[in-house]
Amino acid sequence: MQHTLSDIERSRIRIALVEDGGKGDVTTLATVPEGAQGVGTFLAKADGVLAGLDMARHAFLLYEVQHGISSPNFDFDELLCDGATLSKGDRIATIRADLHTLLAAERVALNLLQRMSGIATMTRAFVDAVRAPSENFPNGTNAVILDTRKTAPLLRPFDRYAVRVGGATNHRYSLSEMILVKDNHIAANGGDIPKVIERLKEYFADPKNERVPVEIEVTDLDQLAEVLENGVGIVNRVLIDNFEVPLMRDAVILNNGMFETEASGGVNLKTVRAIAETGVDFISVGALTHSVMGLDISFEIEQN
Q1: Domain ranges within the chain, ordered by starting residue
Q2: Of the CATH numbers 3.20.20.70, 1.10.150.120, 3.40.50.280, 3.40.50.300, which one belongs to the domain with range 169-284?
Q3: Which of the four pLDDT bands, split at 50, 70 and 90, describes residue 3?
Q4: Cβ(95)–Cβ(109) below 8 Å
Q5: Percent of the chain, pLDDT > 90?
Q6: Neighbours of 13 (CB within 10 A)
Q7: Which of 150, 172, 199, 249 is catalytic?
Q8: By C-alpha distance, which of 88, 89, 82, 84 is closest to 46?
Q9: Would you list the DSSP string of 131-156?
Q10: Which of 241, 262, 273, 281 is catalytic?
Q11: 269 alpha-carbon distance from chain centroid
Q12: 192 is known as an active-site residue
């Protein structure tokens, strides 16, 4: 899987380098001759799914730009690509550059590569769980795994890309992309869902307001019935939140295809298949990005 960095991604890698470098890598300045060249190799120390190679490469490139270094034979050789299944011991990529570049930028490169590969690895496990064939679902389920906005501050572009590498789909990027009416929005309207939907109609009646998708969270079948009764023409999706599996199945039956359905709450690798088999269209999993464990990847340097 190939990825072209956005300006936002470049700027955040640049900030990470400044944060990590401080006033300069005094250890390297004190111990490594200026202009010495070397080769670094990324190695998988655990099984998983690879994500973030282009971000790692740009960490080294941007470091050179920041510090006026021009490696005469700079080369980043990708031996694998994002989305590849890693086995412990696999060589991932090699980089030939100034040793000052390799030593000073390696931590930012590794932090991104490890975190993103960890996200892709976990995501792939959830995707495989809902797609696996079974006796009742010989072609797997049709449920789509979604991420959430529960990302590390300022790392959202990287986290979301890693989710896509793992085979899942991104939910809204920001608050402006979708109207997602949650329990607190409903509570702010006295718990009155018809009132909320009426407000949405008034909002969209104003030509200056862009028509964006609308999703409403429901916490029981009575709330779902209110959305079904009042939401036609306004609502696109219902968020079935924290339902037990049998009740979720009832919700899908009650909805009867009127709106898209999304399940959330209590989703983990032990529960996701049963949730998928209720017939929901989407399953949002906050753990993909808020509980990620970085994949163990090392960076070994040799003088050239």
Answers
A1: 7-119+293-303, 169-284
A2: 3.20.20.70
A3: confident
A4: no
A5: 96
A6: 23
A7: 150
A8: 88
A9: HS--SS-TT----EEE--S---TT-H
A10: 241
A11: 17
A12: no
H or E, element range at 249: helix 245-255
Q: What is the pLDDT of residues 266-275, one digit of tens each?
A: 899 999 999 9
Q: Does 12 qualify as catalytic in the annotation?
A: no
Strand ranges inside the chain, DSSP E: 37-44, 48-49, 75-78, 85-86, 91-98, 144-146, 179-181, 214-218, 237-241, 260-264, 282-284, 297-303
pTM of the model: 0.96
* Amino acid, single-letter form, for residue 13: I
Superfamily classification of domain 7-119+293-303 = Quinolinate phosphoribosyl transferase, N-terminal domain (3.90.1170.20)
- At 8-33, the pLDDT tens digits run 999 999 999 999 999 999 999 999 99
Active site residue 88: no
Choose the catalytic residue: 34, 75, 77, 182.
Answer: 182
Sequence-separated (6 or more) residues with CB below 8 Å from residue 271: 245
C-alpha to C-alpha distance for 218 and 221, rounded to whole angstroms: 8
107 as an active site residue: the answer is yes
Amino acid at 72: P
Decide if 45 is catalytic: no
